[in-house]
Design goal:
Blueprint (H helix, E strand, L loop, with lengths): L5 E4 L2 E7 L5 E3 L2 E6 L9 H16 L4 E6 L10 H11 L9 H19 L2 E7 L7 H10 L6 E4 L2 E4 L7 E8 L11 H12 L3 E8 L8 H15 L3
Helix pairs in contact: 1-6, 2-3
Length: 235
Amino acid sequence: MKSLGTWDWHGRRYESEKNSNGKDYLMATILYVTANVKAEAASRSLLLGSEFLEEYLRLNPRDEVQVLDVYRDSIQRVDQDVLNAWTRVERGEDHALLSDEERHKINRIWRMADQFLRCDKYVFVTHSLNLWLPAEFKMYVDATCVLDRTYRLTPNGSEGMLRGLPRKSLHLHAATAYSLAGERDQSVAYLRSVLNVLGVAHQETVLLKGDDPETGSWEEYETVRSKLLGLARTF
């Protein structure tokens, strides 16, 4: 018989039951974010991310997964309308007084930020592009890292709205297979800093060297695959 209970964090309800490992766990919502224009078969990171997710759901079949592809799904850019709307709202203007375009765009960003807050676990599958993440992923970060939505200002500096909550993340990242003048790729450090700002305390990072299945190391692929399948049991 299942042992069910309810938990309420930030107005959300969670159920506790036995998972396939026989341990009590809180049913969770995973936000699975990809940033790769390639088809899955042409990307080592996408292939591995898919294997991780499949194994995770085998172990936790009642958890919910929300998939976001920043290339496929429309991410609202922070443009002049958004900046104007933020300024007017911060000044205390009523939301109804915004222009239709301002209101539409800021609502889209707020929905994206609210989705991030509602989720319990985050999986990011990315690759390097000129020492950094793709521009579409940066647009997504700007739509989720929002003042007074996902972080706030205090006398001691900023504080993430997720601080103190049991949130965790996994970043699977395929770095460039070759050196670019010896310069350091900033992708992983950047996302880690953003998640720290938002209050995600428990972060895992798994790295690949190269994203092309035809040129990447098969031995490395299997090593990373084994690590991810192990993480699926504890994530």
